[in-house]
Design brief:
Oligomer: heterodimer
Radius of gyration of chain A: 13 Å
Helix content of chain A: under 10%
Strand order of the largest sheet of chain B: 1-9-8-3-4
Strand content of chain A: over 45%
Largest interface: A-B, 32 and 26 residues
Structural class of chain A: mainly beta
Order of helices and strands of chain A: EEEEEEEEEEE
Helix content of chain B: under 10%
Radius of gyration of chain B: 13 Å
Largest sheet of chain A: 7 strands, mixed
Number of helices of chain B: 0
């Protein structure tokens, strides 16, 4: 049973470009959340997708957008990249959020470097 | 969402028991306490979760006092491979709008 898989593992982009990151959730999971983790800091919540809609969003600008497909996989898109967007981007999946006792499974992340 | 406070770093030696305490004074009635472990350049990995009293699994124990304003993650007989960052999270939304703090960096020495 494959866990959460993310692609690509590493990516280098130039300022102003756009990037798309991909996530396949753990088998049986229907909810995907995205996080940004800068070096030396904890993950910061970007947004959550469930039933192909954005359900919750953290404090990130509209340059960050996403999508969830019928097979529950998800994409994170970042437009007009800034140097400060360089980070490890993490995807987490779980079953339909029920409450505080829901366990999230994280992928290995995509390391994005903006130059 | 309740804010958590953890020590920035801790050192230990192989074979010792390590206890990491997390303060969450503003925890709400329906909040759960969850601990994650993260190695460099990897995603966080679930360790243990609890609501009250004591929870134990194959890798750790979680102690939660009656007032739930703090919790302690206990790692028995740590090894070098336990060197990682440990995050304490308090949340009632299924963990998806979760505030990860800076975590506790545990260094296990030989």
């Amino acid at each position: 049973d494959a866990g959460v898989t993310q692609s690509p593992t590493h990516l280098i982009k130039t300022r102003g470009q756009q990037v798309t990151l991909r996530c396949s959730p753990k088998s049986g999971h229907d909810t995907v959340s995205w996080y940004q983790q800068a070096l030396g800091q904890g993950p910061q919540f970007i947004f959550q997708y469930y039933e192909e809609e954005e359900r919750q969003r953290g404090n990130f600008p509209d340059r960050f957008s996403g999508h969830q497909f019928p097979n529950y996989s998800s994409e994170l898109n970042v437009n007009a990249l800034l140097l400060g967007d360089s980070a490890l981007y993490l995807c987490a999946s779980s079953l339909t959020p029920r409450g505080g006792d829901t366990e999230a499974f994280f992928g290995q992340g995509t390391r994005l470097t903006v130059v | 969402l309740a804010k958590t406070t953890q020590p920035i770093s801790m050192d230990s030696y192989e074979g010792q028991e390590v206890n990491i305490t997390c303060s969450h004074n503003n925890i709400a009635t329906n909040d759960y306490i969850t601990w994650y472990q993260q190695f460099p350049s990897q995603g966080p990995r679930f360790i243990i979760q609890g609501y009250k009293t004591k929870v134990t699994n194959e890798v750790a124990s979680l102690f939660i006092p009656a007032d739930r304003k703090s919790s302690t993650l206990s790692l028995p007989r740590v090894s070098l491979s336990d060197t990682a960052v440990y995050y304490c999270l308090v949340d009632n939304t299924g963990g998806f709008k979760t505030i990860f703090g800076a975590g506790t960096r545990l260094f296990v020495k030989a």
